[in-house]
Amino acid sequence: MSTFINVLRNNYFRMLEKKNYFIIMLVVTVITIMLAVYFTAKLEVKGNVALVSTSQNLKFTSSKYIKISLLDKVPPKSQLIMNKYDAVVIDEGNGKFSIQSIKNKDFSQKILEAVTGNGKLSFRNETKRGAGSNIIGYLIMFIFLQGMMYMTLYSEDKENRAFKRIGTSPVSLTAYLISHCVFDFILSIIPTFTVLVVCKELFKINIGFGYPQYLFLLGILTLISTAFALFMSSIFDKSDNYLMMGQMIAILTTILAGSFYSFENNNSIMKAIINILPQKSYLNLVRGLEQGKTMVNFMPELAYLTVLTVMLFSAGTIICRRKLKHGSC
Amino acid sequence: MYRFMTLVKRDMVNILKNPTLLISNLVITFVLTLILGFLSSGNYGRTGVDSYDYYGITMLIFAVLNVAMTASNSFMEKSLKTSNLRVIFSPIPKSYIYLSKIVATFAFTSVCLLLNTFLFNIVLQVNFGGARILYVIALLLLFDLFSSITGVMFCCIFKSEELSNRILSLVIDIFAILGGIFFQLDGFGDVLRKLTYISPVKWVVEAVFRIIYDNDLSLFIQPLLVLSVLSLVFLGVCKLTFKTEDYV
Amino acid sequence: MNSIIRVDKLEKSFKDKKALDGITFNVYEGEILCFLGPNGAGKSTTINILTTALDSDGGDIYFNDRKVIRNNREYKSFLGIVPQDLAIYEEISAERNVAFFAALYGLKGNELKTKVDEALKFVGLLDKKRDKVKTFSGGMKRRLNIACAIAHNPKIIIMDEPTVGIDPQSRNHILNSIKELRKQGATIIYTTHYMEEVEEISTRIIIVDNGKLIAEGTKEELKEKLADEKLFTVEIEDGKSFDCQKLYKIEGTKNVELKEGLLKISVLKGIENLDKIIAMLIGNAVKIKNITSEAESLEMVFLKLTGRTLRD
Ligand SMILES: Nc1ncnc2c1ncn2[C@@H]1O[C@H](COP(=O)(O)OP(=O)(O)OP(=O)(O)O)[C@@H](O)[C@H]1O
Ligand SMILES: [Mg+2]
Question: Could you report the predicted ipTM of this complex, rounded to two decimals?
Fold first, then answer.
């Protein structure tokens, strides 16, 4: 217990010296939540089709799934590459249309059918996310980055040999690591939650979930990010390397899991890979809860996340213990 | 000049002796491109443009963005800082100290950039627009220089590699996402599209794609100018914020 | 003697903390000038201003009677600086380290090579010149730290605690090197916390405290100043109830200090009052475990001037 308090207090004083990190993270959290709230209202999850036609009597209107922009010139190809348009449909006169798209054939066909009115288009089957899912979805990455940032205190311990001292003292290593994790957890979750409360109470912003639900959901997320940070920082001996690799992995997996936008398509390998990502299970859970499902529906996801967290934490501890024994940190 | 080159040589060796910097500049870009390209290949049809054509370009730009971290590492990495700054006692202009870091980082990373470009072109068949590749490379090299200066400037401002890199990495990640490095954002409506232009990465991405796919050089000069001006401004900031008394 | 550097009324504050408070002194050609002072006295600050790396708030420095302008490169090229912290590259060889710093002073080609070898030989690392610094011991690193400052044959060598935290053998080596450097014509400015070092190598001493110069002179001159006093150190037990102020009643007692069972009494020389002191202690039921009497040492000079011991 005294180790625990000692490490926490020590970390607290060290963080005071690094207020900058804390402030920056807080600012980013605020911006993220604002963006998420804003985009919940504004973001258009539609297909974008450019219709190139000189005739005035074409009457295609944008629908729920598709936004048609009428142009009189074929847009540059780079706009297709950058996805401003999913496809360009060119009216060749007398009822014939040709299509330009860099997407797969299936997709092009569907668009053509939709534009010419012979089919229903529902290619982006993702339903629009609510405020809660959007906020949490956007926060995932920053919670991960934050968790890693604060775990650098442990990483720095290893670097500046304060760690050796811990290894040779009668303090339990597990207690020491848990204290770092607790510190990391608290420092990640409290500011985030506070920002949410302020948003709701002071600015009357609709944040989707209620407070208990937020605490629960953010709690799960922060636990994983903490365990991940511990795991990564145990693997790497230098805090620079740890941060670089950790951030790379966190960003990549978070993006792939679809926390900003869904990467999913019909590629089965891709699907399989995405489904392993904890962020994916987590997002499923969040979305489900927002749609009014209950926790019972998400037992597999919850179990998976718990197991993963425990595994990451144990692996981190074991690696750390090994390294200490072999004197490599 | 001899003294300046002595410094540059030293800084160059320091970078080459750092495995993290070597890996992040030489290997990671390629691996990331492979992963993202492979995973999103299903989205693309066989119409001459595939996922590698997208990620090949954006990941190169991402690599160039990350050069800022290499620069700040070469300047104030823990094991280098005291020795790098001992130089302030010797009879050289103090600007040599940060200029040599910029030159060394730029030289090293531009070689990496060219290597990666070559590799992408040969192995992944990424489309660089044929002969227009020269414009693409010119733009990326200038961006590379800008990144090197930015990294060094952050060090001058924050006086530690730790702090500057942690801030830099956040800024880079946000700019990268906005710039469409990982996935295209233009399809999400006009509001978001306009917002993405606050990220300089977006200008470069757009300029490069326009050069490659539209043979349109109108966006070539603009980023070139903006980056040049910003580079000069940032150099000025280095000059103003690098004070020897902060390091004794 | 020729004054090579003249420091005139230097002032320096960090925020509201006054680090230097109008310090004035001369450095003469060919001397080994030792800077003595307790922690935070302003030694490093003075030295950093001397190197022009740090700007002063007021006051001037003259080199050969010419005012030194900030970052003046000609002036800097006459200096060799050994910083308080190790400042060498771990990943490369000793030779490369010295060559790098020497090259910044314009040495090149064969001249650079010979000078680097000379410097390494000087600190006794010539046989290790190809080894990477990270394989060096602490003392060897300290020596290399010095070599990096002397390869370009500086006229003035400034060392900020070059012997901190090393073994006696390396220290002797360094001290001998410093004497040797002086023989070769260099002027040396040196800060340290070790009185033994000052006794051994200094030709002149400056004592600073709270950013002020409080004494200067050769060690003999400084001791002379205190020649009229003598210090008794009495190790006592059960002294808690004893009021040491009583000792002032004894004739010749100048100063009394009790700290952690050590009673330090300075008395005027020539007045034999040790018997009276002992009598008083015994009379007050103080148990005496040991008594030493010190002739005047630099440590005492220091204690008297600053009221502090050097390493407290
Ligand atoms: N960068 C700084 N910022 C604030 N205060 C400083 C700074 N550098 C020195 N000081 C203060 O100035 C005073 C003089 O410091 P200086 O380093 O010159 O002492 P010193 O005599 O070299 O001590 P030491 O024997 O411990 O090396 C001290 O009170 C110190 O706290
Ligand atoms: Mg000092």
Answer: 0.85
